Amino acid sequence: MRNPAPRLLQLGLVLLLCSGGLQSAVRAQSPAAPSQSETEPNKALVRRWIEEGFNQHNLQVVDAIFAETLTINGHLMGRENLKQNMSRWLAAFPDLHVTIDTMIGEGNSVGLWYTVKGIHKGAFEGIPPTGRQVSWVGVDLLRIESGRIAQGTFVDDSLGLLRQLGATPGD
């Protein structure tokens, strides 16, 4: 008696090819990297936040580009809390300017390395205005969902900033 397995395997492959299943199976095993066109709108969203929100001091941009509830450094917060936080920075450093040094995107994630400069003209973290020109760096990783920023992880050189303001021991 002849073994039916090779014939069944051929029939299975034909069915898989006809239904588009082979392409689906290949994609499932080796996901393609997102195209540049998929990440560009996400990068533009993040760039808009920096340019309009910080550099032009337009806090209303937060309502347009952030999810209603978002997570920042693992804490759930709303857009109003984010605007209050941004206001605190802008009040302390009225000429604050953020320069995006590097921005990368992959899928729904955008990362940026930035440099911030400003003159300390308002109270900041209990430190009275010093009039000092300061500069610090940071990195943000943001996740975009449905065309809005939904999550952020922010890390910056806060210690370096406090040193420049003379607010650390030994300064």
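Next protein, fold it too.
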Amino acid sequence: MSDSVWQNFMQQKHLSVHQREQFEIYLMFLQEENSKYNLTALEKKEDIINYHFLDSLVLADAVKMKEVRSLADVGSGAGFPGIPLKIMYPHLQITLIEVSEKKQAFLHMLVQKLSLADVDVCGYDWRTFLRKNTAHVDLFCARASLHTDELLRMFSPSCKYQTSCLVYWASKNWQPGEHEKQYNTEIYEYFIGNKERKLVFFSKDHPVFYAKGEL
């Protein structure tokens, strides 16, 4: 890997030596296991850094992460955004929601390789998770997983997570529909590489952990 790519990543995110080692292990393991588990279409190291690692970590530009205690990654796949956020913010209690047994196996191995504590891999589908899971979650993250119509089930009156917040990674052209507008509290626009994207926030109330001055 080009040293300049890693140097730029390390400097941009102020990575410690330990965090850099964890991201290096993550990237190499992802590449080694990708063909077996069909984890990502991106193969170049630079693309993985930009469009997976940095795109996951952009959440910290819009949210005061130190005030978030628990985070659930819906449709985690290869662990994005949950694992990069855990590496950057070790205090987080992370739940990786993934129905694919192959991807669950990858996530279990990854968590072990990175020696991460307080990370749970949950095999429930989204609707079952909302019905059966009991752990508290401050913030739900959905990046290239379910459609917003399905995700917004968490705000139904009978759901225990109706007071949590949801953030959805969207394309630059995304616009809320009528149902989405009632829960869409903020939109944070950003560039990753040469792509313009949005973080779309949904909640019933305005969460206190939005980054001041950013949204």
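About the second fold: The radius of gyration is 17 Å.
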